[in-house]
Hints:
The protein is mainly beta and 93 residues long. It has a domain at 34-93: CATH 2.40.50.40. Helix content is 8%, strand content 26%. The protein is built from one helix and three strands; from the N terminus they run βββα. Strands 1-2-3 form a three-stranded antiparallel sheet, covered by helices on one side. Strand 2 (58-66) and strand 3 form a beta hairpin. The model has no long low-confidence stretch (mean pLDDT 79).
Amino acid sequence: MKVHPVFHVSNLKPFHANPLDASRGLSDRESICTKPPSQRRVEEILADRFVTVSKKKLVREYLVKWEGLGPEESSWERDHNLKSFHKRLRSSL
């Protein structure tokens, strides 16, 4: 069973800025990257794994560290999504 992060709008409270604490409400997290993987640049391949897609089919995925993004933004990408990076994949593994 999956639990989804859903909550009712009645649980929300309005934000009121505090002039004495200007950092209140600011995030430490890097900005969200909206570029699709085809437009990002691979910084490093961290790992690889095989994932079962159907009963008889395995697909290879790579854990990709994207250039300019923090390690928390690393993502698992299937090999066919990284065709333009194949030379880099071979040298990294």
